[in-house]
């Protein structure tokens, strides 16, 4: 997990993915495969990316009964993804089951994938959380509650907003792994994201890894933009 820059491969199919990746020639990347691409191309997409030497974050956000998640994670571990995730709302027993599944599917000599949990989706507003989930506390309290539960279950970290990362690290330590989407450069259009932050802001907040999608994938020169994001991250003091 030493690469702090994860590129979200939000493409419709494999052809678009490889057209994009080919621009990076020898650069070894950390790539996020989400539901759109995974359900379109199937598990072989993970093999294809791993064979080329890239790290893979398989962002499938599992949320089901513990036994089902355990069995699913066993299969996911066999794919060789480096980072996987679940919804913390599935509960502590489900998260523990996820780890058991990953352990049983990890081959001898391989490392178990890192497993993190989504706390509250960044697309959920506080008002929506209160009226639809009937959670009476603030959004930040709900996020920290889920982060504590995630750590208690033994997972490696959480997906959260860059604006929540400092609070999480203050409470759970700097080693707790935080992954934050919603990253934009100062010059970018924010599109449909609600609360965005720059790579520099995320670094200062102690974020472990940022997920960057359209800022890189839709740039006129994705390679140049990738190095620009990387430079801002590296030149910001934690
Ligand atoms: O293009 P953009 O940088 O906004 O892409 C962000 C990526 O992170 C997308 O793949 C999106 O699905 C994902 N994501 C997110 N917010 C979350 C969890 C995942 O934006 N809470």
What does the secondary structure layout of this molecule look like, with pairings?
Blueprint: E1 5-8, H1 14-21, E2 30-34, H2 35-41, H3 44-51, E3 55-62, H4 66-79, E4 83-87, H5 92-105, E5 114-118, H6 126-132, H7 139-152, E6 157-159, H8 162-172, E7 177-180, H9 199-204, E8 209-212, H10 214-217, H11 222-235
Parallel strand pairs: 1-2, 1-8, 2-3, 3-4, 4-5, 5-6, 6-7, 7-8
This protein binds cytidine-5'-monophosphate.
Residues 8, 10, 34, 121-122, 159, 181-183, 193, 211-215 line the site of cytidine-5'-monophosphate (C5P).
Task: Tell me what the structure shows.
InterPro entries: Aldolase_TIM, OMPdecase, OMPdecase_AS, OMPdecase_bac, OMPdeCOase_dom, RibuloseP-bd_barrel. Belongs to the OMP decarboxylase family. Type 1 subfamily. GO terms for molecular function: orotidine-5'-phosphate decarboxylase activity. The protein has 238 residues and is of the alpha/beta class. The protein has one domain: Aldolase class I (TIM Barrel), CATH 3.20.20.70. The chain is built from eleven helices and eight strands. It has an eight-stranded parallel β-barrel with strand order 1-2-3-4-5-6-7-8, surrounded by five helices. Strand 1, helix 1 and strand 2 form a beta-alpha-beta unit. Helix 4 runs parallel beside helix 5 and helix 7 crosses helix 8. Bound molecules: cytidine-5'-monophosphate. Cytidine-5'-monophosphate (C5P) binds next to strand 8 and helix 10.
């Amino acid at each position: 997990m030493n690469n702090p820059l994860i590129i979200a491969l939000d493409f419709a199919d494999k052809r678009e993915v490889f057209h994009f990746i080919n621009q990076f020639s020898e650069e070894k990347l950390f790539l996020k495969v989400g539901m759109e691409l995974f359900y379109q191309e199937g598990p072989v997409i993970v093999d294809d990316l791993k064979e080329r030497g890239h790290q893979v974050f398989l962002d499938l956000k599992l949320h089901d009964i513990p036994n089902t998640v355990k069995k699913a994670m066993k299969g996911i571990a066999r794919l060789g993804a480096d980072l996987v995730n679940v919804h913390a709302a599935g509960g502590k027993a489900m998260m523990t089951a996820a780890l058991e599944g990953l352990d049983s599917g990890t081959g001898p000599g391989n490392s178990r994938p890192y497993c993190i949990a989504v706390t509250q989706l960044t697309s959920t507003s506080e008002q929506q959380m209160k009226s639809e989930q009937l959670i009476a506390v603030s959004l930040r309290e709900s996020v920290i509650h889920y982060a504590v539960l995630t750590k208690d279950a033994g997972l490696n970290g959480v997906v959260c907003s860059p604006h929540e990362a400092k609070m999480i690290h203050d409470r759970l330590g700097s080693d707790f792994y935080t992954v934050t989407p919603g990253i934009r450069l100062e010059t970018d259009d924010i599109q449909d994201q609600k609360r965005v932050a720059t790579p520099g802001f995320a670094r200062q907040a102690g974020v472990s890894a940022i997920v960057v999608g359209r800022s890189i994938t839709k740039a006129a020169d994705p390679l140049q933009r990738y190095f620009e994001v990387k430079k801002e991250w590296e030149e910001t003091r934690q």
